[in-house]
User: What shape does this take?
Amino acid sequence: MTDADFVSETRTFYDTVAEEYAVHFPGLHGTTPLDRGLLVGFAELVGVGGEVADLGCGPGRVTAFLAGRGLSMSGLDLSESMLAIARRENPGLRFEQGSMLELDLPDGSLDGVVSWYSTIHTPLDHLPDVFAEFHRVLRPGGHLLLGFQAGDEPRRRYEEAFGHKVALDFRRRRPEQMIPLLEAAGFALRSRTVREADEELGEPVPQACLVASKPPEPTV
Assistant: This one.
């Protein structure tokens, strides 16, 4: 699969299902307290006023949640239909269209990067490029929050969603698989968390979250 294939497929999927997705996943109040706690902890780690990009922001629910915790948030997503919902629901926040593979951001311009389940459609051999971009745009001492579905199954392909005939791969990975890729990109691991699947939320597999930092510049 080429870059154009999986990027285009992801964009088409979410452009097609955006409105139904937003209704089905109405906000973070439906997530577990453990997930919200991770997001709050990340906000405190970055600090009030920190410049943070929510990459793969979808309808902007995580973006808005973290903005409410004092972070200076912006969102980026492939899907213009998802961005339309994010802008409609959060007129005070900035949302732009773009790809995590090629961020239109200066080097060292952010205090934090959030990738909340936004790498789950990215093939494994493209993750080093994604993590290199995350590292590039962070300031020394900046932090990354990475959420994903945990599991050994390499992928599950959906051919229909919310009544639409659309196809997309959802990839599950172990923290032990992701951590070396982050370290190879220059990150230092700060935290790893894996919680069990929540049956009430219909989760089929455990959920993982990693916090990593771009090391500060050495003092002379």
